[in-house]
Amino acid sequence: MVTGYSSSHDFNQATAHFSVPDIGTGVGLLDQQKERMIGEKVYREVHKQMPVMQNPWLEDQLLSVFSHILSQTQLQQPIGLLVINDPQINAFAVPGGLFALNAGLINSARNMDEVAGVMAHEIAHVTQRHYSRSQDAFKGQGLLALAGILVGALVASQADGDAGAAVMMGSQAALMDKQLTYSRNQEREADRIGMQYMYRSGYNPHSMADFFEVMHRSTSRLSFLPDFWFTHPLTTERMSEARLRANQLPAVKPKLNDQDFEIIKWYSRVLSRQTSEEQLSLMNRQNNFAGQLALAAYQIQQSDFQAAQAALDQAKKHNQMHPLLVLFQTDIYLGQNQLNAALKSVASAARIMPENRALNYKYAEVLIRAQQPDQAKQIVQKFLNANSRDVSGWRLMQLATNAEPASAIKAANVLRYRAEVEYWSGYEETAIKSLLHAQRTAKNNQSLSATINQRLKQMQQARQYKI
């Protein structure tokens, strides 16, 4: 049963020596609090301008690996880990602890160790505050200018390049070369420190060098360079150094059959529409568990619930308890309007694993449809208390409140939950308008008015910082 991805490699750290430079507390243009503010600003802007994948199960599987690596650092809780629905192999990090991976990176990797190598590299850029330390690159512009350039360049990598170009217009464009890319020394430092982080987390350090070499071979056949090469220039020197460094570390026993990662990869390919029914059907005929789960997900996407059930029944012969089986079975029942069956499918699993966000959000979704909004809100609120930036959670709170019986405060609560969805999705002005409306609606309720007023001030203050 997979409730969170973990590494169980055999390795010996006793003979490995680690050296992570102490960058001191007075380095950088902005203090950590301001960096965090900027990271959250970019978080909202990325949600607004890029196709962020909203899938709690996939997010949490990757976040589990990410958090395991992050535990080797002194970083505080990160702003978040986003998955972008883009076939390009790319990843990026922003000051304050915002990290993002493209689906193309997950879909192209051969094992979780390769993904962990990229994660560790990005984490090292943030722990060493490479953006903040590049004082020469900013020329007085500050990190917020960099944030705008970063978002613009990322948007430019999408199909509509004109939108990205528009964001980067003006005086900021001249600084793009220095602000978007890291220096060679910073890249090499991120390679070196990132490899230490991944090794200490139990991942195979050779996988970082492996992924560099695979990418180098694949790009040599292309007439263009993928975005990753522009933001993280790869040289033969870096590849050689990565391999040499990995050779100096005690051996890590590789996983020959990483089924957990195969499930993540093939589900990601379905969600990002980077696979075909023919591919998945072939895996199904080969009795491949990851392929059977992915085929069920694909058929649910197509609303072919009969075919989805057939694929799921095949998968159940391998493992009756995998959370995706529960999630997909619940979706099939919901698609067939079998509400009682859906409730029975997900309720016990969600209660057994109260920490599993995907199962509990699915349970909340079914409870809302079953006209039990209060219970749904109690479930979701626990996760929002831990992460106030969770767009999926706020959306469920809005839906649940909308399903409640009419009351004096219902309209105000629907509006304030809608404002959170809008705000964390990057629509700050719309969110503030929703809260102003909520404020007028709740004027006769002193407690609710105070809550809304406090949140309104926070949003208005954050909106002053322009990208």
Automatic annotation (TrEMBL):
It is found in: Periplasm. Its EC number is 3.4.-.-. This is Putative beta-barrel assembly-enhancing protease. It comes from Acinetobacter pseudolwoffii. Zn(2+) binds at residues 121, 125, 187. The active site is at residues 122, 191. Binds 1 zinc ion per subunit. Residues 56-243 form the Peptidase M48 domain. One of its GO terms (cellular component) is periplasmic space. The lineage of its organism: Bacteria, Pseudomonadati, Pseudomonadota, Gammaproteobacteria, Moraxellales.
